C-alpha cells in the first residue's frame, strides 16, 4: 500500500536572519544612544568637578575670613604705640598688631601680615614680644617684606583683594593707606585736621575685606569688628 510522503522542501524550516541594512541601522542607533549617554555622563562629571572646585574656593575664603576676624578682634589699643599705626591696609597687604594671651603667660604682641602675591593669599606672623623696640622693628621689616617669618597659604587663584577701614565718629569708609589712630592734637593740627574734628579720628572700629577669586563673577565681602576681643 503506497504511503504518502511529505515533500522534502516542506520538511526544511527556512531560518531568515537580519539583513545587512538592518544590522547597520541597529548599530547606528546603538552608537547614537552611546554618544548621548556619554555626553550626559561627561556633563555630570564636569558639573561635579566645577562644584567641588567652587566649594573648595568658598571654604578657603571662609577660613581666611575666620582668621582675619580672630586677628582683628585682638587688635591692640593704639594708645600702646603713640603716634604709630597699629593697622595698615595699603595695596594688596593687610598689616596689624595683635595681642597674644596664653595661659600663665603675660600678654605679648605680634605683627600679622596678610598679602596677595602671585595670585595667592598668605598669612605670616612675627614672634610674640613685649619689647616695643622689637615690635617697631618687626613692623618695619613686614612693611619692607624683608622679614623671614613662615608663610601660610590661605587661598589660591586670588584675582583681587580690596580693604577699607572705619573710624569711630566718622560717616564713611577709608580706602587703603595707613591710619595713625592716635596722633596728638598738635600733630593733627599740623596735618591740617580741624580742631573740632580731633575726636573723629581716634579709633579704628571696622575693617571691610573684599576678595575676588578667579572664576567667580563677584567678590566675597565681609566686615569685621576691630578690637572686640
Automatic annotation (TrEMBL):
Gene Ontology CC annotations of this record: plasma membrane
Bilayer-spanning residue ranges: 20-38
Pfam families recorded: N_methyl (PF07963)
Keywords: Cell inner membrane, Cell membrane, Membrane, Methylation, Transmembrane, Transmembrane helix
Domain of life: Bacteria
Membrane disposition: Single-pass membrane protein
GO biological process: protein secretion by the type II secretion system
Compartment(s) where it occurs, according to its Swiss-Prot or TrEMBL record: Cell inner membrane
Main location: membrane
PANTHER family cross-referenced by the UniProt entry: TYPE II SECRETION SYSTEM PROTEIN J, TYPE II SECRETION SYSTEM PROTEIN J-RELATED
Name of this chain's protein: Prepilin-type N-terminal cleavage/methylation domain-containing protein
Protein species of origin: Undibacterium oligocarboniphilum
